[in-house]
Amino acid sequence: MELSSLFSWNTDNLFKFLFINGIVLVVISLFYPLQKQQELELEKIKYDQKVELINLKICKLKNEVESFNSTSKTIEIKIDSLKKMTKDSKISNSIKDLKIQFNSTFSRISKAKDKLDIEDLNIKSDKSKIDVLVKHAEEYRQYSTWFFRGGLISFFIGLFGWGWMTYVNENFKNEELKKIRKENG
Prior knowledge:
The protein is mostly helical. The chain has two helices and no strands. The two termini are 20 Å apart. The model has no long low-confidence stretch (mean pLDDT 81).
């Protein structure tokens, strides 16, 4: 008698464990991939914002380069006209000022281009990160499917096993009570 009740008690706990485990797996399979999908969407939004910002900076830099080209042509014409004039200290100073203006504008545009190159590398890095997150999201979906299936199987085995063991234990207890009543009876 004690061995059968011990056996039923342990299997009862096993089925309870399977039931609870099934619930946990189903909950995890439903919510964890959603969290990863949300993280991926946030990363995509950040990436799109960075791309839009760098595109605006590129347009601005193109405008500056066009402005620089027209300014440099004007400066070149001025320098040529100044060179044709007599060599005067005012003319030399004017040429030096024009060269300084040219060099500072060129330096500013070069620095802006370097910054854009760095931002472009950062964007490429972010794109790689998004690609990895997309790959992981797909893997999470696959794991989620397996967790969900395993959780459902565990849930139903635990639920039906627990119910069956409860039924068997109740019948066993009722039979034992009947035997005791007959013996006492």
